[in-house]
Amino acid sequence: MKLFVFSDVHGNLRALDAVLAAYREFSPCRLLFLGDAVGYGAHPDACLDRLLALPRSRMIMGNHDWAVLDPNEKDNFNSDAFAAIDWTVNTLKGKYNDSLIRKFDMTVECDEFLAAHGSPLHPEEFLYIFSIFDAEQVFMAFDFLLCFVGHTHVPMVYTYVGGPKSLEPGEPFALDPSDRYIINPGSVGQPRDGDNRASFMIFDPDGRTVTLHRLEYDIEAEAKDITDAGLPGRFAERLFEGR
Ligand code: ZN
């Protein structure tokens, strides 16, 4: 069965709904969510409601989700992100803490793949994989053919043999069974690769491909919700820029 892979929703409900509509079209699929359900966006509660109700799903804890559970983590964020975490904690008022702890794992490891929000090396430190040097450390430390990560908000493939590769939306990327891969599906709710559309990916284990997909959604309405909520305006601007 295909695996529907998505990450970094960040409280963006309209982007998440667009991606979940695509999930229903592609179904039956299993689901892998790579973390950061909340933070930046105006709809952390509705996004968590949607995510926690998904069947056949594995969910991973992101650094923003973790900061909702542990107030000490807020010190690791810049002032705008810190303000958004504070706002999110107040909005959720502890309502989702138990379900986050129960349903969200730091890593997922199975025969088919390894997955974490940032680097699976010390997953609770949420290190970024931004370069082939970061990727190499992960290739050396673990024994996997396929590793899914989020956190950078930039879709990317790092191969063990062939170096970094970019992904074209809608074009299947073939996975050579003799190579190894670290794959980032980009961000649903705060893309940072210059493309403002919501991002997700399909892994086809039979055809040995991953395919990136991008979807438009109502950015204007979502950005207005962010400013109306009193969240830092920069988070609304970034939705238009995709940076
Ligand atoms: Zn994130």
CATH-defined fold name: Purple Acid Phosphatase, chain A, domain 2
The overall strand count is 13
Number of domains: 1
CATH architectural type: 4-Layer Sandwich
User: Which ligands does the model contain, each kind named once?
Assistant: zinc ion
**Residue runs with pLDDT of under 50 for 5 or more positions:** none
Alpha-beta classification: alpha/beta
Largest sheet: 7 strands, mixed
The helix content is 25-40%
For the termini, the CA-CA separation is 33 Å
Count up the helices: 8
What order do the helices and strands follow? EHEHEHHHEEEHEEEEEEEHH
Please give the CATH class. Alpha Beta
**What global shape is seen?**
globular
Taking all residues together, what is the mean pLDDT? 95
Strand arrangement across the biggest beta sheet = 4-3-2-1-12-13-10
Please tell me about this protein's structure.
This protein is α/β, with parallel strands linked by helices and 243 residues long. Strand 5 and strand 6 form a beta hairpin. It starts with a strand and ends with a helix. Helix 7 packs antiparallel against helix 8. The protein is globular. It contains eight helices and 13 strands. The strands form two sheets. A seven-stranded mixed β-sheet has the order 4-3-2-1-12-13-10. It has a six-stranded mixed β-sheet with strand order 5-6-7-11-8-9, with helices on one face. The chain has one domain: 4-Layer Sandwich (Purple Acid Phosphatase, chain A, domain 2), CATH 3.60.21. The site of zinc ion has 6 residues, from loops.
